[in-house]
Design brief:
Elements: E1 12-18, E2 22-24, E3 30-38, E4 44-54, E5 59-67, E6 72-79, E7 86-94, E8 106-114
Parallel strand pairs: 2-8
Antiparallel strand pairs: 1-3, 3-6, 4-5, 4-7, 7-8
């Protein structure tokens, strides 16, 4: 549930999940990233996770501290496409306790693995 924006809230959001739409099978070192933003009022610390929720078996977790209002932060990671047909990725950011809009805390993206 969303809280009304006020000076005692933050608004963490996933602004981008930079993962290729398609990639050849068995490719290594695929550079990717996730970007978050605090669009609220309070400075906040927490975690961002990027997981392959279908295919791949990946889970990347990044911690951040003191993300001030208006600030963005990008986290980079590398992965390999292996021999899957597709991978569904999910990025999420926490905490959500005082988040004025928790509806933008999760972003999903599909990658097609071309054989």
């Amino acid at each position: 549930p969303s809280l009304p924006p006020s000076e005692d809230t933050y608004d963490l959001m996933i602004t981008s999940l930079n993962i290729p739409d398609s990639i050849p099978a068995k490719t290594r070192g695929i550079a990717s990233s996730v970007t978050i933003k605090n669009d609220g009022f309070l400075t906040v610390s927490g975690e961002v996770s990027v997981s392959s929720i279908k295919g791949g078996g990946y889970n990347f977790v990044f911690s951040f501290t003191n993300l001030a209002a208006g600030q963005t932060k990008t986290f980079d990671f590398d992965w390999s496409s292996r021999n899957r047909k597709f991978i569904t990725w999910e990025a999420s950011v926490t905490p959500t306790a005082n988040d004025s809009d928790s509806g933008n805390n999760i972003l999903t993206k599909d990658t097609i693995v071309v054989r």
